[in-house]
C-alpha cells in the first residue's frame, strides 16, 4: 500500500495564509470594537466573519470573494481544520474555568436556577424545532433530531460570555453573580453532554432506545474513567514534569496530549471530539499540580489566534441573504424571541423558587441569556452532520449575537445602583480579607522532617493552625530510616502522605534544601519546617537558609521552646503577636488567630514604638491619652489588628510599649506575661548571599525561651534578573 501526502501548491498556500491573515486581523479588530462598547468580543469576531462572508464581501466584490474563499479548495479545508483546533483549545480553557465544587456548594439555589433555565428553553426549542419549515432541515436528518439540535442551541448559556460580563461589571462575587456563574457552568456541562448524545442520534440516523443506551452508556463510561484513572495519570504526568521546578513547556505538552487523547476517545465513541477537550480542561483544573502560567499561555494563544479564527470562520458560513427566502427572517425572529423569553422565564422562576428577590431573579434571567461558543459549535456540528441547512445554520448563529447583546445591556440596567443586602456586603468584605489569608489559602502543607523533636514541634504547629481539610505531606530527604510515626500521630484526623527524596546527602544543606524546594513547587501552599538552636555563622542552619533563599511559597519556621523535657510542648496558653502593619505581620496574625480559635490561646497583640536612648515604658491602652504621632500610628495599626481578630472570633489583649530595641521589648514582654508562644512575620531579603529577616526577629529567636514561629514570605524577585 502506497501513501503520499499531497502538499499545498504555491497558489493554495497563498490563499491559506491570506485567509488566516485577514480573518485574524478582522476578528481581533472587530472584537476590540465590541469591547470598547462593553460587549463580548465574540460578537465582533463573529461579525468579522459575516462581513467577510457571502452576506457582504461576497456581494460587494464577487471575484475577490471567490479568490479568498474558493469552493472545493484544499486551502479552505485547511482553514476549517485550524478553526476546529481553535474550538478544541477554547474548550480546554473553558474546562479549566469550570469549578464543579462551586456548583455543589451553592446547592439548592444553583440546582433550581440551572434546572428551570435549561428545561424551559429546551421545551421551547423542541416546539420551535417541530414547526420550523422543511427548508431548515438538512438532507441527512429527520424532524426529531433536528428539533433536538435546535432545542440544545436555545437551552444553553455561555459561561465565558457570562463571566466576562459579570467581571467587567464587578459582579462576580455578588450572590446572584455566584449563582449565575454556577448555573452557567452547569449549562455548559449539560450542553456538551446533550451535544454528545444528540450527535450520536444524528450519526446513527435515528432516535431509538438502543441508540440512547449506547450513546449515554459510552459517555458515562468515558466520564467515569476520565475523572478517576485519567485524573491520576494526568496528576502523575504533571508532577513528573515539575520534579525539577516549574516547567511550562513540559506542562503545556501534558495539556495538549490530554486534550488529544480525550478528543480521540470521544470521537471514537461517535461523540464530538470537542467534548473530550472540555473534559480534559476539567481534569486539568482539578489537578493540584497545575501551573497558572500554563493556563495563561494557553489562553493567550487561544484568545489571540485560534478562537478568533474559529469564530470568524463560523461567521463566514453565515449567509444573511438566505433570510429573505421562504419567510426565513420571520422564523429567525421567532427563534430569537423564544430563546430570550424562555431562558429569562426559566431562570426567573428557578430563582424565585430558590428564595431570591425579584431584582436578583431578573438579573439571573438577564445574565443567563448570554450565549456564545457552545451555540456556535452546536450550529457548526449540525451543519457538518447534515442536520441543519445553511438557512438554519444562519438563524442559529444569529441567536448568540442578539442574546449576548441583550444580556449585557439588560444586566447593566438591572444592577444599576444596586448594592445588595447588608449581609451580602459583609460577606464580600470578609471574602476580600480571606483571599489574602495564609491559613485559608494554603491548600496543602509540606513538612520536611527527619523525625527529630524540632520537626515534631513543626507538625504540632501545623495541626493547630491549619484546617483539618488541608492535607499534609511529610518529606524525608536522604534518610530512608527516618521515623515519622510520631508526626503521623500528631497530624491526627488529617490526610497525610509520605514522600522520600533519596540519593541526597543529608550533610549537604544545599542539596537537601533543593529537594525541599523542588517538592514545594508541586502545588503546596506553605512549607512548615522545624529548627533547633541557631548555628554559628548562619541564620538557622545551612539547609534552612538555602530553603529561605530559594522558596517560592511562604515558609513557616518553628523553633521549639527551650528547656522541654519531652518532644512535644504543651498546648499554647498565651501568645505574643507583634503588630507592625506589614503583610508579613498580617500573615503571622492569621496563623496566631487560627491557633487561638482551636486551642483557646490568649492572644496579646503587641506593638513596640522605637525610642532610641529612652527607657521603655508600658502603656495601658485603655484611657491613655498620648499626644504623639508615633503612638497614634501604633494605635491605628493596633485597631485594625483587633478588628481582624474579632472577625476571626478572637478577643485579644493589647500591649503598647516603647523601647530602644523592639526585639528586646518583645522578649521582655513574653517573659513578663509568661507567654509560651511568639508568632512573628518576616519579609525575606538577600544580604550577601544570606537570608535576612530583620534584627527584631533575630533577637527574639536568639533570646526568647518560648516557642517562636516565624512566618516568612517568599523573597521578591529582582525584576532585572528574574532571581
Strand order of the largest sheet: 3-2-1-4-5-13-10-6-7-9-8
Figure out the total of helices: 28
Pick out the low-confidence regions: 618-626, 718-723
Remind me, CATH topology of the largest domain? Answer: Na+/H+ antiporter like fold
The gyration radius over C-alpha positions equals: 31 Å
Shape: elongated
CATH class of the largest domain: Mainly Alpha
Distance between the termini: 56 Å
Write the CATH architecture name of the largest domain.
Up-down Bundle
Q: Compute the number of strand runs.
A: 13
Oligomer class = single chain
Structural class: alpha/beta
As for the number of domains, it is 3
Helix content: 55-70%
* Average of pLDDT: 81
Q: DSSP strand (E) fraction?
A: 5-15%
What can be said about the biggest beta sheet?
A: 11 strands, mixed
Structure description:
This protein is an alpha/beta fold and 723 residues long. The chain folds into 3 domains: 390 residues, Na+/H+ antiporter like fold; 136 residues, HUPs (Rossmann fold), CATH 3.40.50.620; 154 residues, 3-Layer(aba) Sandwich (Rossmann fold), CATH 3.40.50.620. It is built from 28 helices and 13 strands. The strands form 2 sheets. An 11-stranded mixed beta sheet has the order 3-2-1-4-5-13-10-6-7-9-8, with helices on both faces. The chain has a two-stranded antiparallel ribbon with strand order 11-12. Strand 1, helix 21 and strand 2 form a beta-alpha-beta unit. The radius of gyration is 31 Å and the shape is elongated.
